[in-house]
Input
Amino acid sequence: MCYYYSLAEDAIKLQKRFNAEILEKEKYNSFIKISAFEEKELPVIIKDRSNVIKFFRWGLIPSWIDSEHTGKKMHARTANARSETIFDRKSFKNIIFSQRCIIPATGFYEWQHLWNENIPYLLKLKDEELFGLGGVWDQWVNPETGEIINTFSIITTVANSLLEVIHNTKKRMPIIIDKNDEDMWFDNTLGASQIKSMLEPYPAEKMEAIRLDQNDEELYLPF
Output
């Protein structure tokens, strides 16, 4: 699964890397570690004429949810969308075709479980400081207040050989969209088979794992 990630770059580098404009620059703050359960608005890239960076909440509330109570319950369990079921589940099966997004990141966190110890790792790409996690988004109108809320889920898939060893209980990892495929990811004319081809594990040889201590400080130990 993916419940923690980092975006430790400034706004200028972010916009340049993704050729996208931050529409509400006053909202942007870089971060070392964010949790899916903090309910903050986070940068998300969507296709809107040209690429734009907006701020959505992590944990998808589908547009068809009819009450605030149900929306809060849904939000708490949709931080991730499984690639294996995304074309079948009611929450995701329509938006996977038309409302895909990219979540900018500099890394994400997973834990290795060994006996009674949980060892934290920061996962990064070897040759790219900034990269994009694949996601889906939706817009929900709270029927009780009229508030418009945009939310997203990060898509996950089976672990590659690196994550199999680190995330050794669930053996999952987030979808990472290759830089060369980002424009294709936003193409709403793609069919199911074309989208599925982009939901594969990112190559392990292009990634690195950094072991951390319990305060998220790098230990610089070989993996």
